[in-house]
Amino acid sequence: MKLRTITVGVDGSRNSDRAASVAADLAELSGAQIIAVHALGLLEGTPDEGDSLFDRRSAVREELETTWTEVLRRTGIKVRCVLRDGSPVMALLAVADESGADLVVVGRRGHGSLAEQVLGSTSAAVANDSRCPVLVVPDDPASD
Fold it and tell me: Which of 2, 62, 95, 138 is most buried when burial is the number of CB atoms within 10 A of its CB?
């Protein structure tokens, strides 16, 4: 399978950083471009007192384009950042479909039901509904 486009979910968490690192390694090996996706959910999009929705969105975009994708940019590979409104699952699937992604990479959190503990609710839903292969990157227990 030739990798030309890899979509990766990022949110600043340790698991998301691990997923981004794996996506970066794969992109370096294959020459693929990466699309880093973050979903701005209802609660995350609520501005703090004194901030506007525009300010909150700008702050999240800044994090997405700098801190959350630093590991990707350090490699010198082509990275495009996409900030979407809605759920992480819908955002990742939509961007993967729109871009013709060859692979989606997500981190695993493992909260909730047994299936969610094994994969994580977002990663399980993405793996279930994706039209392309999905790589679920587990948490690193050694880092606890």
Answer: 95
